[in-house]
Amino acid sequence: MDALLKSANALMGIAARSVIQVEDRVTSPQLRVLVFLAAEGTQNLGAIAEELRVHPSNATRTCDKLLKADLITRSEDPADRRFVQLDLAPAGRELVESVLASRRKALSEVLDRIPDDARAVVLEGFSTFADAAGASHADGRFLLHLSTS
Question: Which InterPro entries does the record match to this protein (predicted)?
Fold first, then answer.
């Protein structure tokens, strides 16, 4: 258990450092919205509120700030104009990609320090662990939740 907790702390540190790199542009909840949209595509406010586990009015305020920063776009839902669709703007996609690239680089640096004969075993172990934890996305959402929940 100690080894698992130690590894979790290392992963959270990597995730936290990637969030710190963009904290001058977005808050942690705003970054969660951007990563969610990057992973899931166009969403409505209800889905974003559910993802953030907040009241819809809080999700609206968060998204309004992202709209003003030109990080997301808003359009009418063609199926029901009472609903709006939210999606990543190019600048939002770029921000998410920079955070995930930072995480990939940091993780790669750690993997490079693992002896070649152990690397495959470590990666298989992490893959099995992620599957058991229900982490179905390789896009960073799981690590983002660890660092901002």
Answer: HTH_MarR-typ, MarR/SlyA-like, WH-like_DNA-bd_sf, WH_DNA-bd_sf
